[in-house]
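Posted in: Structural Biology > Protein-Ligand Complexes

Title: Requesting predicted complex, magnesium ion in pocket

I'd be grateful if someone could produce the 3D structure tokens for the following input. Sequence and ligand are given below.
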Amino acid sequence: MIEFKNIVKKYRNKTIIKPFSIDIEAGQLVVFIGPSGCGKTTLLKMINKLIHPSAGKIFVNGKDISTMDAIELRRNIGYVIQNTGLFPHMSIRENLELIPKLKGEDPAKIAKKTEELLKVVGLNPAEYLDRFPKELSGGQQQRVGVARAFSTDSDIILMDEPFSALDPVTRNSLQDELVQMQKELNKTIIFVTHDMDEAIKIADKICILKDGDILQFDTPENILKNPANEFVEGFIGKRRVWNNPELLMAEDIMIPNPVKITTKRTVLQAIEIMKSNKVDSLMVTDKNNILIGLVTLKGIQLLNRNSEIDSVMEKNVLAVSEESNLISILATMNEHKIGYVPVINHSKQLTGLITRSSILSALSSQLIDLEVAF
Ligand SMILES: Nc1ncnc2c1ncn2[C@@H]1O[C@H](COP(=O)(O)OP(=O)(O)OP(=O)(O)O)[C@@H](O)[C@H]1O
Ligand SMILES: [Mg+2]
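-- Reply #1 --
Done. Output follows.
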């Protein structure tokens, strides 16, 4: 949908954007985030040809925009600029209706849409339509800016810190509205922010920038779980895993390679293995490492020592998949009143074991990281 290919931007001798390449899919909400001056606005403005790259190409819907008419291109891209950019000499209504009118849309439809959009951003049309931008607060102007971006019926909307002047409550509700509108209307949105919480909340993908370089371009989940480097880690803060415990997956919590036994061994051997590994239960696996049962010391210590594991093990063992998260694992353990649960992969092979103490040590290692980071 929008492809940056080896984009470079230089001002005099200074390189602002290093070769920058990403491909933004249609219908996605991509957030650009990074420190002030890293080039976010510059990248956004290149998409509608307000700034020209020093090298490289941008394709919109497969078309090289350097070959396209700038005015025509801009009419089809909604743009909320940093600091609203409303036309001061036009009323709110005129600001909102400008582009739809230029595109020759039906006037009755335009009027209806204008009112709807104002309501969506929390402004009463009767009160605000005929005011001028300077008669609105900064936050109200920003909301009109957002409404205007959606008024164009364009598939692409560029939003440069559109919510920065809003109070947290309004900001929160506009974030929700934005995501809903975007999914309903299937818009492709590039959204610039400084606020990582905002990015995580609304983004399909986040592009983290620093000094004109991409540090990481990935889903919020992957960035939180696997920050590409220390800068990203610092930027997102370790504490996020605490705020989002569902991001901790079985794989992150489990003891890998738990002690196990195969079916043809005996009770005597099982007890020996338990003793030497200081555990009181063993997972039973077949020759392909598929989990098929479980033996506990309590369950087998009074049995005939020569019995085969096959005949004494508990079958139908409850297990969780590698992708299940901490919240669902805790729920499972609580519901079944169990102190441990094996972890299996897609082929039902045993890959780990979660115990109360493995959960505790995973959580406390996060806590220790936190103390070091702050
Ligand atoms: N016309 C210009 N001439 C020279 N340097 C410029 C020009 N426009 C922007 N820059 C520089 O390019 C860099 C990137 O600017 P840009 O506006 O893209 O940053 P940004 O990431 O949007 O920052 P912020 O978060 O503060 O909005 C900055 O260092 C800025 O000073
Ligand atoms: Mg900027």
